[in-house]
Design a protein that fits this description.
Blueprint (H helix, E strand, L loop, with lengths): L6 H11 L2 H7 L7 H11 L2 E2 L14 E3 L2 E3 L3 E3 L12 H11 L5 E2 L7 H8 L4 E4 L5 H13 L5 E4 L9 H6 L9 H9 L1 H9 L18 H9 L8 H11 L3 E6 L2 H10 L3 E4 L13 H12 L4 E4 L6 H9 L4 E4 L1 H10 L1 H21 L13 E2 L11
Parallel strand pairs: 4-11, 5-6, 6-7, 7-8, 8-9, 9-10, 10-11
Antiparallel strand pairs: 1-12, 2-3
Length: about 400
């Protein structure tokens, strides 16, 4: 086993152990991938202001998210098909998150069902909702999330239509895999992954399978899913979801100041500044460039979270410095999951926490709540070279 010291180490191990179609599903963006690449590149432009002469013998990264104490400003983001990165992947990730005191957010398009995860995660995990054309199914999902004691609902706003992801199309990505000869040969080399998938009964969309009338097999299930993204999702729908859920509601996919203000006016509890990891609208600005303006507009009215591009604890700290209350990571923990299963997710969280705490201390900050823009060195044109 190689020595793992950073997220990149997990990524390299992940690449060797997981079939290419699932690696590509995570590690690519839409169209030209310019937004996907800029998410991380723009984070790298932000530097830290080192400070000395401060007693840093006692430091704290603890924060509150939606009124609950967390060990650090981080949650595991919803990622579709997590259970195909490693057998029972959502369950493994939920257990790792629980052990480390951070939220796990289960995707609607998960392989393990809400009920599967609830049995392992206990109370407190969050559920991400894609509002579907089948509104009865969507309402039932909300009901199931309540019954599973999910402590927050995360409504994704930026998937009314699926962005074109070239590698997924070329790889023939589906559940279960229906690959061409090239990908079949690749699958044959991933013995560890294959044995795990063979042993688990969970090989479908667990939140959908058995809960939709007229869907009798995997072929009809895939056809149903392909037709379900709700193009009419609007602010009135958000109000309806808020009323149905009647609990902490988070909107994910906010990249516009006016959209953020609208979310605040409706009374949602938090928003996630996110461009879906560069997997939807290619050519959009990176999430980190949009974060400060959105925080300035609504940061005193609701909690503002950040995702897209985070690959280190330092990236988490950069987002906190620009005003985010907390961050969500997707790819970073998926690397760990595919590389080493549950232990790999734990390792990813551990790496993030160590990098965050060490960098915070070297900036002369004892408590994460004290970290701000004063601790960063930001390019002068970071926000001013775009005409709105």
């Amino acid at each position: 086993m190689p020595v793992i010291t950073c997220i990149e180490d997990l990524k390299q191990l992940y690449k060797r152990r997981v079939p290419k179609m699932f690696y590509d599903y995570v590690e690519t963006g839409s169209w030209s991938e310019s937004t996907f690449k800029n998410n991380s590149r723009d984070l790298d432009l932000i530097k830290f202001n080192q400070k000395v002469g401060v007693d840093i013998s006692q430091t704290s990264t603890e924060i509150s998210m939606l009124g609950n104490k967390m060990s650090m400003p981080l949650a595991l983001a919803p990622v579709g098909l997590t259970g195909m990165q490693s057998a029972d992947g959502e369950i493994k990730a939920a257990r790792a998150a629980k052990k480390n005191g951070v939220p796990f957010i289960l995707s609607t398009m998960s392989v393990c069902s809400i009920e599967d995860v609830a049995r392992e995660a206990g109370e407190g995990f969050w559920f991400q909702l894609y509002y579907m054309n089948d509104q009865e199914f969507s309402r039932n999902l909300i009901k199931r999330a309540k019954e599973a004691n999910c402590s927050a609902l995360v409504l994704t706003m930026d998937l009314q239509v699926l962005g074109q992801r070239h590698m997924d199309i070329k790889n023939g990505l589906s559940i279960p895999p229906r690959p061409n000869l090239k990908t079949l040969l690749d699958l044959a080399t991933k013995v560890r992954w294959g044995l795990g998938i063979l042993r688990t009964p969970r090989k479908s969309f667990g939140n959908v399978d058995g809960h939709v009338d007229g869907v009798k097999d995997l072929s009809s299930l895939m056809s149903w899913v392909a037709d379900q993204f709700y193009s009419k999702l609007d602010w009135e729908t958000v109000r309806q979801v808020k009323d149905l859920w009647d609990g902490p509601l988070v909107l994910k996919g906010i990249m516009d100041v006016e959209d953020a203000k609208k979310a605040a006016s409706i009374g949602v509890d938090a928003i996630v500044v996110s461009n879906h990891g560069g997997r939807q609208l290619d050519g959009a600005l990176s999430s980190i460039r949009m974060l400060p303006a959105i925080v300035e507009a609504v940061g005193d009215k609701l909690e503002v979270y950040f995702d897209s591009g985070i690959r280190s604890g330092q990236d988490v700290l950069r987002a906190i410095g620009l005003g985010a209350k907390a961050t969500l990571i997707g790819r970073a923990y998926i690397y760990g999951l595919g590389a080493m299963g549950e232990a790999g997710v734990e390792k990813a969280i551990e790496i993030m926490h160590k990098e965050l705490a060490t960098s915070m201390a070297l900036c002369g900050i004892r408590d994460i709540s004290e970290f701000g823009e004063k601790n960063l060195l930001i390019p002068s044109d970071f926000q001013t070279n775009w005409k709105w």
